[in-house]
Amino acid sequence: MAREIIGRKRELEQLRSVFNSDKAELVAVYGRRRIGKTFLVKEFFNGAFDYYATGIFEGSKQDELNAFCDMLYRNATEANAHSSIKTWMDAFAALRDYLTGLRKKRLVVFLDELPWFDVPSGQFLKAFEWFWNSWGATQDNLKMIVCGSATTWMTDKFISGKGGLYNRTTERIYLAPFNLQESEALLKSNGVDWDRSLILDAYMIFGGVPLYLNMLKKTLSLDANVDEMFFREGAPLRDEYEFLFRSLFKDSDFYMRIVDAISRKNMGITRQEIVEQAKVSANGTLTKALKNLVSCDFMRKYSAFGKKEREALYQLTDLSVLFYKRFVERYNGKDEHHWTNLIDSPSRRAWTGIAFEQVCLLHVPQIKQALGIAGVQTEVSSWRYAGDEYTSGAQIDMLISRRDRVINLCEMKYSTYKYEITSKYSKELRERCATFRSVTNTRNALHLTLVTPWGLKLNANAGVIGQTVTAEQLFAEIC
Asked: Is 428 a residue whose pLDDT tops 90?
């Protein structure tokens, strides 16, 4: 019996449309590792595939051929029926013959971890092109689903490649990490009945990665779960960061150097700063790596307010990687209750502020909905001013520039209680607004907006804030 699929409403509708169509379908499902691609496909089809194969991580050409042909061998009427399979052209010809012999009203084929089949000099993609263009595309009953975690390979070589598969995919399904509302639903389906303050804290550590959220045990506190998963001897996620990058990128050390450089600045750094801090060359290899990291949801590329594209910033957005870089990477392995014992420590308090800012950036649609501007065209950016001899420096971590000539200057403050605006902070906010208007020369209306989990404490200084967005609104489903 298929398990419940949490969220993924749009993706499920796409799969239903594919399954019920009266034409050949070639569907590409892609997104970063651990995000639930294989689970989605297997559960939707209830594992009822007419042919299924998955690539082998770092396998040889023969390893991949053997994995691909395993089902063909098991279904062959003679033990040596496919002993002649030596190349990918042979393998796809055998797959064609096998599927033709089934004579079914609907054929469902699932190839998982497709990029892993494509070993150097193996000619896998060329054989796939031949299979689909010469036969598959003409079979109105064929529904072929391919899946891959190497997102850039899927987009550049398979979906948008210039070869024989150009524009051949009939449906593209991109799986993003869960948002807070979906993460809450997943945890509750597993019997983890935490209140939203704990779920928000869990999200700041694990992000919206279903595999990690599924590992949380309902019998343990959140802090105990974190110790169990990262800091005890043999902890299952201790080496997850390196495995994740090694499984996605061939030159994983190069990618990790880039991430290390980006993780040092909360607001992000420029391409030139990456070159200097990661000690890499400013060439096409770096360009490709940055594109790959963005497409795999590890970071975002954005332009600061008033800046040009060439001055774009790269900012780490993967919350699980942020947590790893802050607490796990340099852990010495001597305290199995390391996270629990960091309660109220300066490092943990500093991290909560940074992580909450990232949660907000990942929930801009929810913030817009809470502000009543869901239908207004907007652009999200940040702003920094170094200051001069006359004006102090200033920084705004998130601006929402609206088509209706309003800019929401968002202050994102993590707190476990109602946030209190002091007279000192109120003065800072007013001065920051004045500096922003003076430096940018904007004529748009400026609305100070506070995003804080449990709302604003009403006092004499609260009037400086125009609107407040709470955790309840970050958890809201987008209408």
From this structure: yes
